[in-house]
Design brief:
mainly alpha, four-stranded antiparallel sheet, two-stranded antiparallel sheet, 18 helices, 6 strands, 64% helix, globular, transferase, membrane, cell membrane, PTrfase_EIIB_Cys, kinase
Length: 454
């Protein structure tokens, strides 16, 4: 059986060696490589390797689909490159001229480390709302208070985590970014904002905004702070730089964050949420059909992370998100396609494959299904698109919303329980999920798996 170390070395050889890799990161199932010269990649050799489910060039990256073992492979890959302590190759990075690709890569790098914890916190919030609604727990109970604290803390202090990761990605001291994020949600400042009191900075009025659960203000503040930090780090003697570079960065960046960067990004966040909701409001049913049918095509091209800021922004600015309510059912549709494929197939290997990736899909990971079943047997993709479109329409008709950010599959159900215990969106998601899952199974029984037309 191929080890992660052996696989990492084989991939590294097939992509042109360490000298051709500028950055190596990963998401839930993909090893994501930023390369100097994509023409040096032997794509066929990569895809022929054991444990590789496929690969795609997208978003300025070469993305290799591995599955749930990708974190271990990523570590082995960094060791193979000779850089186990970092995800960058010594020598700096090539400047990407495509602004979309630049933004895409930054968002992926900053937010990816938080996704698992963010989903866990969202699930816990939903479960607590269910326990309250069912009378199993009360708000005064110690058990509720402890679980509520950890589930709320992650979202409340999101600017701290964003500031830390952003500064790290931009090449600065991550604790400077974390401190700026913490300043944005500092209790005394929040109390002034809540009380509606006026505050000035040497006579300049400060627009006080509640930055808890915000994404973009801390991100932009960290970007500016890193630029300031690098400026002073180059000019101060190293004997005093370790202390005075952070001091001068704080001295300049903190006022900028409160006077300009935070309010501007907060306004942009609210505007983005308003625009998205306006588009959705034109026809929730049409959006549900299109989103439910075609969302997984976006996943194929690896561009789904470009939507993450929009989904998170909706969740935190509006307290709910109808987009992810539709996208979530596509996960269940693909899982149903894989299970239906396994049930109907007469090939023992395909049966085992369908069941294994189908179960993976039920916990929210669809890429193994896409590259091992849905694309090789394209009829399965069509079944999933049809069922996903119908399920998405159900979500649109009911105007279902997710109250927290997370993935799809079985673990998404708690995300649809309102903080006040309202179960309308939960029941809608339950009905949509049943349709999405069993639709492809029925289609497999009626029309077959398509194995003869692979």
């Amino acid at each position: 059986m191929m080890t992660h170390e052996r696989l990492a070395k084989d991939i590294l050889t097939a992509v042109g060696g360490p000298e051709n890799v500028e950055r190596a990161t990963h998401c839930a199932t993909r090893l994501r490589l930023v390369l100097k010269d994509e023409g040096k990649v032997d794509k066929e050799a990569v895809e022929a390797l054991d444990k590789v489910a496929g690969s795609v060039f997208s978003g300025g990256q070469y993305q290799i689909i591995i599955g749930l073992g990708v974190p271990q492979l990523h570590k082995a890959f960094l060791v193979a490159m000779g850089t186990p302590e970092t995800d960058k190759v010594t020598g700096g990075e090539k400047q990407e001229t495509n602004l979309f690709n630049q933004f895409f890569k930054v968002i992926v790098s900053i937010m990816t480390p938080t996704f698992g914890v963010m989903a866990a916190a969202g699930i816990l919030k939903g479960l607590l709302a269910l326990l309250l609604a069912g009378g199993i727990l009360k708000e005064a109970d110690g058990a509720y208070q402890i679980w509520h604290a950890i589930s709320e803390a992650f979202f409340y202090y999101l600017p701290v985590w964003v500031g830390f990761n952003a500064s790290k990605v931009f090449g600065g001291n991550p604790f400077v970014g974390a401190a700026l994020g913490a300043a944005l949600v500092y209790p005394d400042i929040l109390n002034l904002q809540t009380a509606g009191e006026a505050l000035t900075f040497f006579g300049i009025p400060i627009v006080l905004v509640n930055y808890t659960q915000s994404l973009f203000p801390a991100m932009l503040s960290s970007f500016v702070a890193v630029a300031i930090e690098k400026f002073f780090a180059k000019r101060l003697n190293e004997t005093i730089s370790w202390m005075f570079t952070p001091f001068l960065t704080f001295f300049i960046a903190a006022p900028l964050a409160f006077l300009v960067l935070g309010p501007v990004m907060s306004w942009l966040s609210n505007t983005l949420a308003t625009i998205v909701m306006t588009i959705y409001g034109i026809s929730p049913i049409l959006f549900g059909i299109i989103g439910g049918a075609f969302w997984q095509l976006v996943v194929i091209f690896g561009l789904h992370y470009a939507f993450v800021p929009i989904l998170i922004n909706n969740t935190f600015n509006l307290g709910q998100d109808p987009l992810n309510a539709v996208f979530s059912v596509t996960v269940t549709a693909l899982a149903g396609a894989a299970i239906g494929f396994a049930l109907k197939s007469k090939n023992p290997k395909n049966k085992s494959l369908g069941y294994s990736v189908g179960l993976t899909g039920l916990v929210g990971i669809t890429e193994p299904i896409i590259y091992s079943v849905a694309l090789p047997y394209r009829r399965q993709f069509i079944y999933a698109m049809i069922s996903g479109g119908i399920a998405g329409a159900i979500q649109g008709i009911n105007q279902a919303v997710a109250y927290a950010f997370g993935g799809g599959g079985l673990m998404a159900f708690p995300l649809f329980i309102a903080p006040d215990g309202n179960m309308k969106s939960f029941y809608s998601f339950l009905l949509a999920s049943i349709v999405a899952f069993f639709g492809p199974i029925v289609l497999n029984v009626i029309f077959g798996t398509g194995e003869d037309k692979q």
